[in-house]
Design a protein that fits this description.
The structure holds 2 protein chains of 2 kinds.
Chain A (H helix, E strand, L loop, with lengths): L2 H11 L6 H18 L4 H4 L11 H14 L3 H13 L4 E4 L23 E4 L7 E2 L1 H5 L6 H6 L2 H9 L6 H11 L2 H16 L24 E2 L5 E5 L5 H11 L11 H5 L16 E9 L7 E9 L10 E8 L10 H12 L7 E8 L1 E10 L3 H10 L8 H15 L5 E8 L10 H13 L2 E8 L6 H10 L4 E4 L2 H10 L1 H5 L1 E12 L4 E7 L19 E4 L3 E10 L24 E10 L7 E8 L7 H17 L9 H9 L9 H15 L2
Parallel strand pairs in A: 8-9, 8-11, 11-12, 12-13
Antiparallel strand pairs in A: 1-2, 2-3, 4-15, 5-14, 6-7, 7-17, 9-10, 14-16, 14-18, 15-17, 18-19
Chain B lengths: L4 H9 L3 H23 L2 H19 L8 H22 L7 H10 L10 H8 L2 H12 L4 H8 L3 H23 L1
Helix pairs in contact in B: 1-2, 2-3, 2-4, 3-4, 4-8, 7-9, 8-9
The chains are: A alpha+beta, B mainly alpha.
Chain lengths: 670, 178
């Protein structure tokens, strides 16, 4: 043992003794828990046999006969329960239960515990049938034929020394007994066995980390008239929310970044003039759907769409995480498919290189022109998952390769694809951050694509993409890969403006309070707005950025804060028909000085347009998922109505999908 | 003659309260010491121990005597610690690994961090899974095989994690010299 380890060992061993009082208390509490847990145990109490509705039959069975349960397979177990059905009892499969909301949900109990779907018998007095043992038991297909002769079920009844569960089991054994029923039973077993069995799998270890800040509070205009933030064109949060909902559970609240959900969708915003700034801001004010006393201020930026043929040659370095955790089908295999899709969009003058990191970093494909599809595809296909992750070394190498590829007038971008493992060998977070920042200044951009759930380090993705002037997207399906890598290829890869900051100054004569919806992780200080050294988000070609404020007009009954009694009269401003002033700062790519755009925001609140309505519906949806306190009694149903009425053209079906997700969330949140 | 842990645990799993009491009495101190080493923080270790004590009766139903009781208990404890950490991370309290570091970086403006002694600092510098592994191997004196069993990972991963710990400590030592 080396000295280093010995020092640590000695330090670790010299730890404190337990507190005696606390020990007594904990032991007493544990004993109490134990007594409750085993309340019906005959060994202890010798209690008479009686049905106890809230105890599971499997739990009681186990008390007496663990060994026999291990012989019961999932199919046989289902056969037992379906046996009850054939005898005419209504059987209801209730799925999912709370503790099934495994991935992404900080479960209270340690994770190796099996999920416990419940089979409820319709007869009111019957106990729940917990199926955790069925789930835990190894698959043994031959058990089904065995069941036809009933020995297995019979044995259950006979071996169980406990009198308590016996009546139920005896009944099921009796029901299974008639030979004529076994055939029908077996076929039902097959049906029942195929569908829900995946739901029984114990949730895998979940090490996801999400980055979010507390929801923006309501601000008083008189106190802080100015609100400043950086734009955000990431979409990762929406895809994470979708993947959670599609797998049947509500997303973790911290995974919901409302602005990323809103910005996921394409909107029909007015396009900028080709001669003017690279993007065009539009502002509108309309009624808030969830609060009659407030209004929604909708700020929309539309980026220029340069002609695709006019775009400069592109150098792409795929930096691919091939650590062991990437082998799931929704990770490396999906990643390969995604990049294959993207190759079709590249042009002959574009170049591609592939660097992997796992254990040690390595260049798998030297810079190759996009026309050599076969070479690139072969290199992609050779990728295999294995080993641990050396993220920093990989990133350094990817940047080095990108630097070698870049010629004048070309755009270089590192596309990092990972499931979140990026942490081996990093002891100096600031070092990596400044590394990414330096590379950003040298003109190489960084985008981060997240794959797979369970290990997703969303916070790290955000941090890297924000500091690397890139965007972070989460790819859960091939359809999402198509959206991110094909339909939006130009936007994601060609920045038209960077360090885009938004500042809104509210007119205290018109507005009493305001609240920025989302953008919690993008807040800037007021003085940062004019400081060109402060980094902010970039806008790619054709990107759209949407920001929503909920504002409370002066004199509205929705004002939350009362005026103060001892303070000097607050500045009132002049009522000039302006609600406030929108200021935007941006830099053209590779420039260091920012330009300023100023747009006055009119007070008038015409009926909301479809785009505003849809963005508001999504913002409301996101806030509900976050458990926001500002929505009052607004319901999913109302959000769905609002979104449904504002679907617009929806050429890609994104909005229709969002409405589907809202419906799922509605049913899950009951 | 003393009854083995496994027999006691099996009896307890069948509802024998005195067996459960004896078992807990036998292992409480070790459990607390382990919790303390995992967390490095007394209040946190006390909370963790309490979590484990309260969850233990329910967990015990799952004890099937397939592994040694102590191995099983360590696994329950490691998992409980893991869950606590995750809950803490959601509240942006812990500054564990990378992602959490980013979250805490945002709060760093307003919060001054307390001065930490060598051990706390060393342990904070380690990722949670490296930390857990180091505690099992160094302080609990487990073999790599046993630690692998507790953590439900391969022995190779344990060996690799320990080499990472060593590497990290060496780097720290070099840093301290400067």
């Amino acid at each position: 043992m080396t000295d280093d380890l010995k020092t640590l060992r000695d330090a670790l061993r010299s730890t404190a003794a337990p507190d005696a009082a606390l020990k007594a208390r904990n032991m007493a509490a544990a004993t109490e828990c134990f007594a409750q847990e085993f309340a019906a145990s005959p060994q202890e109490t010798g209690a008479p046999v009686r049905p106890i509705p809230d105890r599971s039959i499997w739990a009681r069975l186990r008390t007496g006969g663990i060994s026999m349960m291990t012989h019961l397979t999932s199919r046989a177990g289902l056969a037992m329960t379906t046996g009850l059905v054939t005898a005419g009892l209504a059987l209801v499969l209730v799925l999912p239960r709370d503790d099934l909301f495994g991935p992404g949900h900080p479960a209270d109990q340690p994770r190796q515990e099996a999920s416990t779907p419940v089979v409820t018998l319709a007869e009111g007095t019957e106990p729940d049938l917990r199926m955790e043992d069925i789930a835990a038991a190894p698959e043994a297909p031959q058990a089904v034929p065995e069941l036809q002769g009933q020995p297995t079920v019979r044995a259950v009844a006979e071996d169980a020394p406990l009198t308590e569960p016996a009546p139920v089991i005896a009944r099921s054994a009796k029901m299974a007994a008639p030979q004529g029923q076994s055939e029908g039973m077996t076929s039902m077993v097959t049906n029942a066995g195929d569908v829900p069995i995946t739901a029984f799998a114990p949730p895998a270890e979940n090490t996801e980390r999400f980055s979010n800040a507390d929801e923006n509070p309501v601000k008083i205009v008189a106190d802080s008239p100015v609100s400043t933030f950086s734009i955000d064109v990431d979409t990762a949060a929406y895809a994470v929310v979708r993947s959670s909902l599609m797998s049947g559970h509500l997303p973790p609240e911290d995974a919901v970044r409302v602005e990323e959900m809103v910005n996921y969708f394409p909107y029909a915003y007015p396009a900028p003039d080709t001669a003017g700034p690279p993007f065009r801001p539009t502002v509108s004010v309309s009624q808030t759907p969830w609060n009659t006393g407030t209004k929604i201020l909708h700020i929309a930026l539309q980026g220029q769409v340069p002609e695709v043929t006019a775009r400069p040659p592109l150098n792409l370095v795929f930096l691919i995480d091939t650590s062991g955790s990437m082998q799931d089908p929704d990770k490396l295999p999906l990643l390969k498919q995604s990049f294959r899709l993207m190759l079709g969009q590249l042009r002959p003058e574009d170049q591609v290189a592939i660097v992997t990191y796992a254990g040690s970093a390595g260049q798998v494909l030297a810079p190759t022109t996009a026309t050599e599809r076969a070479t690139i595809l072969a290199a992609l296909d050779r990728l295999q998952a294995g080993g641990s992750t050396a993220g920093q070394a990989g990133l350094e190498q990817a940047y080095a390769v990108a630097a070698g590829m870049t010629e004048d007038g070309e755009v270089s971008r590192v596309l990092l694809a990972t499931d979140g493992d990026f942490n081996v060998g990093i002891h100096d977070p600031d070092g990596l951050q400044s590394f990414v920042e330096r590379k950003r200044d040298s003109g190489t951009y960084l985008s981060v694509l997240g794959f797979g759930r369970g290990n997703l380090n969303d916070a790290l993705m955000q941090m890297l993409a924000q500091n690397g002037n890139g965007h972070a997207a989460y790819i859960d399906t091939i359809a999402e890969a198509q959206k991110v890598l094909m339909d939006q290829l130009t936007g994601a890869l060609f920045p038209i403006a960077q360090d885009v900051k938004i500042q809104v100054e509210f007119n205290p004569a018109e507005i009493a309070e305001y609240r920025l919806i989302g953008y919690e992780t993008r807040a800037l200080r007021r003085e940062d707005f004019n400081n060109d050294a402060v980094d902010a988000g970039e806008i790619g070609a054709g990107h759209q950025v949407t920001a929503l404020y909920e504002v409370t007009p002066v004199g509205s009954d929705a004002v939350l804060n009362d005026p103060l009694r001892y303070q000097a009269e607050a500045p009132t401003g002049t009522s000039n028909g302006e609600l406030g002033l929108l200021r935007l700062r941006y830099k053209a790519p590779s420039e260091t000085d920012s330009a300023l755009i100023e747009v006055p925001i009119p007070v008038d609140a015409p009926p909301a347009k479809d785009e505003t309505k849809f963005a508001t519906a999504i913002a409301g949806f996101g806030q509900m998922l976050r458990g926001s306190p500002y929505l009052g009694n607004w319901s999913y149903a109302e959000a769905i109505d609002l979104a449904n009425g504002a679907r617009g053209e929806d050429a890609f079906g994104y909005r229709a999908e969002a409405i589907r997700l809202m419906r799922i969330a509605e049913s899950l949140s009951d | 003659m003393t009854t083995s842990d496994e027999d006691l645990a099996t009896a307890a799993a069948h509802g024998d309260q005195s067996a459960f009491g004896a078992l807990l009495e036998r292992h409480y101190d070790r459990l607390f010491a382990f919790a303390f080493r995992l967390t490095g923080h007394r209040p946190e270790a006390e909370d963790l121990t309490q979590d484990i004590c309260l969850a233990l009766p329910g967990k015990l139903r799952g004890f099937r005597g397939e592994s040694r009781f102590t191995t099983w208990l360590y696994r329950v404890a490691v998992n409980a610690a893991h869950d606590r950490r995750r809950r803490a991370a959601t509240h942006a309290k812990a500054a564990d690994a990378w992602g959490d570091w980013e979250i805490s970086r945002r709060a760093a403006d307003t919060e001054t961090r307390d001065a930490l002694d060598w051990l706390t600092e060393a342990m904070n510098g380690l990722k949670p899974d490296l930390r857990d592994t180091a505690v099992l191997i160094l302080a609990e004196e487990m073999t790599q095989a046993d630690a692998a069993n507790v953590l439900e990972i391969s022995e190779g991963t344990v060996a690799w994690r320990m080499s990472e710990v060593k590497k990290y400590l060496r780097a720290r030592a070099a840093e301290d010299l400067q």
